[in-house]
Specification:
This protein is an alpha/beta fold and 341 residues long. Helices cover 30% and strands 19% of the residues. The longest helix is centred in the middle third of the chain and has 14 residues. The model has no long low-confidence stretch (mean pLDDT 94).
Length: 341
């Protein structure tokens, strides 16, 4: 029998990493730092760190001043005024097969192929999870947003903790998990300063998140991940490979530079090995070709032209291990790291 995870047993101060204890609706560190809790979600940001995205700044603002005027924290989602109206109307009416927040942010979380599904998503696109046999091990999903990968990991038996800087997305993740009958804990925080104690995670997972960080911020997130990983724990993170044909095309269009803000940063496999290798031995596994984030499990909700792309990408992925060097040509790869004991 798997014991249900108590998030209080693993929470840590994002500044010092020290344990936290609850006092009313706040979490308090050994040093006396206080962090609020919003509708069951602890909010723990490093007070001296910059924001990686505008919704993160809005979350700080909301959780610092109270959310009574916006109980669903819609303002923290980074969506248009028309989308906000759709979300608020949907949440007030209730009874939806798909949460109104997920309907409106699906393209932002899953990629451009999902633009046509905004506002008319037939069901939750829950992907197949590569890691199996969770056996109650603690898996931390960095940048979980509305929780699609949290649901996928929980169904494989992991005790899941989703972390994201957008409080509105996390409240949606809570609703989705409850609707689908999945146990998962959610924390509002920053991947660069994980609000967890040291040596608590068996697996660190992330999909389509660290690729948006600057090289400096990515290094901070990798270091923070290593701190909270147990000895021999596994890190399994999706990243873009600049030598993939689609990634190289997009990089060239940008003028072969990193861009700024929330732009995707394109990495070579050598750069990824150097960055993540600071945690431990590093290898790669193909995620997909012809884009970032293509999930064959979503073929049933895609237009015919995208279904064909998914099929070809998946057929190529299955040649991994047969064609030497194929990961070097994939557009999206998983970085697979085992922490040194």
């Amino acid at each position: 029998m798997v014991t249900k995870l108590s998030v209080g047993d693993i929470l840590g101060c994002p500044v010092s990493g020290s344990p936290l204890h609850r006092e009313g609706n706040e979490w308090v560190s050994e040093e006396g730092r206080r962090y609020p809790e919003v509708q069951g979600v602890p909010v723990l940001f490093h007070p001296g760190e910059s924001d990686t995205m505008d919704p993160m700044a809005r979350t700080r603002e909301f959780t610092g001043s109270g959310t009574e005027s916006d109980p669903w924290c819609v303002e923290s989602l980074g969506i248009t005024e028309d989308q906000k109206k759709c979300v608020e109307a949907g949440l007030r009416s209730g009874g939806h097969q798909v949460d109104p927040v997920v309907e409106q942010i699906i393209a932002a979380t899953c990629g451009n192929l999902y633009r046509g599904l905004v506002g008319r998503l037939p069901h939750y696109p829950i992907p197949h999870f590569r890691l199996k046999d969770g056996r109650g091990r603690v898996l931390v999903d960095l940048g979980c947003n509305w929780g699609r990968w949290c649901v996928a990991a929980a169904r494989e038996g992991f005790s899941v903790v989703g972390i994201d800087p957008q409080i509105g997305a996390l409240l949606a993740a809570q609703r989705v998990a409850a609707q689908l009958g999945v146990d998962a804990a959610f924390i509002c925080g920053d991947a660069r300063h994980l609000p967890l104690r040291a040596d608590v995670a068996d697996v660190i997972f992330s999909y389509s998140v660290l690729q948006h960080f600057s090289r400096e911020d990515a290094a901070k997130a990798i270091k923070s991940s290593g701190r909270v990983m147990k000895p021999d724990a596994r890190l399994f993170v999706q990243m873009p490979n600049v030598m993939g044909p689609r990634c190289f095309y997009q990089w060239a269009r940008r003028g072969f530079n990193d861009g700024s803000g929330f732009n995707v940063r394109y990495w070579t496999l050598r750069q990824l090995r150097a960055a993540f290798g600071k945690i431990g031995p590093t290898s790669f596994e193909i995620d997909c070709f012809f884009g970032i984030g293509l999930q064959p499990s979503d073929a049933d909700i895609m237009p015919v032209k995208w279904k064909s792309l998914l099929m070809v990408s998946e057929a190529l992925r299955k040649l991994e291990g047969i064609i030497p060097g194929l990961p070097w040509l994939a557009d999206s790869v998983y970085v697979d790291v085992t922490k040194k004991a």
